[in-house]
Amino acid sequence: MSHNLFDVTESSEGARDILSRPLADILRPKTLDDVTGQDHLVGVNGTLKCMIENNKLSSLIFWGPPGCGKTTIARILADHTNYHYEQISAIFSGVADLKRVFESAKIRRQNGQGTLLFVDEIHRFNKSQQDAFLPVMEDGTITLIGATTENPSFELNAALLSRCQVLVLKRLDDAALEQILRRAEEELQRTLPLNNEARETIKALADGDGRYLLTMVEQIVGYKETLNREALTAILQKRSPLYDKSDDRHYNLISALHKSVRGSDVDAALYWFARMLAGGEDPKYLARRLTRMAVEDIGMADPNALNQCTAAWETYERLGSPEGELALAQALVYLATAPKSNAAYVAYKKAMKAAKQTGSLMPPAHILNAPTGMMKALGYGDGYQYDPDTKDGFSGQNYFPDEMNRTEFYQPVERGFERDIKKRLDYWSKLRDKKGG
Q1: Please, what's the b/e burial string for 311-323 (b: 16 or more CB within 10 A of its CB; e: otherwise)?
Q2: In angstroms, how far apart are the furthest CA atoms of the chain?
Q3: Which residues touch 147 (CB under 8 Å, ≥6 apart)?
Q4: Across the chain, how many H-helices and E-strands are there?
Q5: Torsion of CA 19, 23, 26, 31, to 10 degrees
Q6: Are 210 and 36 in contact (CB under 8 A)?
Q7: What would the pLDDT profile of 116-153 be if each residue is shown by its tens digit?
Q8: Tell me: the pLDDT tens digits for 287-325?
Q9: Cis peptide upstream of residue 65 (ω within 30 degrees of 0)
């Protein structure tokens, strides 16, 4: 199937425009009402809407994924005020650049005009560079709007965060992306050459990024024949999922995976597992996390879960990718469908706490070995009963320090294998009480 791009001499003003300017720039919203997908900020009772209406613009940090409108909203805020707008990128700027911006802002302030400074990728600045903002923010020389795709709690100084309000921008949903497509069609004065399936596909490929969506539109807008899904994907280079093993999205996805397993939702667990692999996550990292889930969330409710994970880990080590990933998926299915108990995990934490509180208490003398005559004379091993030789195979003796009351750390649940363990513990407790242990 051959496709011919439209002739640049066509009368459509939108068609000529797209060849000379990026469509994302042409369609950049001019007012807050034009911003899509961020109603919680720009809607009727949105935070930014209220700031504009009350003429009280404070320093802000915009935290959100790429293509959700951070830069656009900052420009709109400047247009809605009498502030002079300055924009820099933390990737390309240093302290010297900041000083020049601050000096110009001080002159404007003396002349009665404020400066709205937009800093893209502000998390790229180091501590000393972030500290440079503090005095000019405090004296009103600048109003700062910083944009970041990373979690501000981890990437920005506490001093800077204390002087800003953090606003979270959402990934654009399907409705917002569809609205952007319709605006593009209005601007271009043509319907995009996509059937319904291809239209859904291009939104899925955008992955919540409005800017990337319009970049893809630029690549297909001139095709005269209607594209189906296969034709569309053949034209567009497939985009890697929005995922970075070192950023906040990494921790969001592993949290989603862990909680899906904990919640026994095998389908959701497989989805997040696949998302991480598709994003380039190291399968060995996932193997380690699965093993942790086996001991933390399943524990003695199904002790075989640990064996499944270590076996899958070893299988991956032998087979590698992609074959070995199936072993990890199998272990994941086992974990998600296994009975859950964190009783052993909770018992361990309680025991650790008690160990730190009780210090250096000695074991009771009757369970100490006595390899020398002096130690026997001191009572080491005196009165010790060998449990297998007792009538019930259980002596009921005390094994805690004499100065410490018996403490129950492990409380098994009535699920899976722990149901049987609980029966044993209850039986031994009755014997212990009977024997006066």
Answers
A1: ebbebbeeeeeee
A2: 109
A3: 61, 62, 70, 71, 74, 118, 119, 120, 121, 122
A4: 22, 5
A5: 180
A6: yes
A7: 999 999 999 988 899 999 999 999 899 999 999 888 98
A8: 999 999 999 999 999 999 999 999 999 999 999 888 999
A9: no
